[in-house]
């Protein structure tokens, strides 16, 4: 496991060093509410291990398994907490569009609030932007 980065707020959250309420915790990931939500429900799922961005993931079983687990946790939380939502969105911002350099899956139960925030969760093609979790899994599949 990679060492925690002391200045990384998500490393601090993952190790319960903050007052952040955790919605899920296990040996691989933790989940919590986004402090600046962009949707009806907006959760983040992060690995306990410090991994900076999606660019640090490789096509190998352990990275594929981690992202699959992150997605599964996010789906479970939203199906529990927003069962009436008809649209969900799961994905990652890619550098240079990520706000925190600690891998984090955005789990969104739509609608976006306010509606203009949907722009933040759009793919910009070769420039990066937002990558849907299932597309990242396709890239990582060994």
Please give the share of residues in helix.
10-25%
Q: Give, in order, the helices and strands.
A: HEEEHEEEH
- How does the major sheet shape up? 6 strands, antiparallel
The CATH architecture would be 2-Layer Sandwich
CATH fold topology: HIT family, subunit A
Number of strands: 6
Strand order of the largest sheet: 1-2-3-5-4-6
- Structural class by secondary-structure content: alpha+beta
**CA gyration radius, whole angstroms:** 14 Å
β-strand percent reads 15-25%
The H-level CATH homologous superfamily, spelled out, is HIT-like
Oligomer: single chain
3D architecture notes:
The protein is α+β, with helices and mostly antiparallel strands. It has a single domain (9-140), classed as HIT-like (HIT family, subunit A, 2-Layer Sandwich), CATH 3.30.428.10. The chain has three helices and six strands. The chain has a six-stranded antiparallel sheet. This is HIT domain-containing protein.
In brief, what are we looking at here?
The protein has about 140 residues and is an alpha+beta fold. The protein has one domain: HIT family, subunit A.
Please give a handful of descriptors for the protein shown.
142 residues; 3 helices; 6 strands; alpha+beta; HIT family, subunit A; 6-stranded antiparallel β-sheet; 23% strand
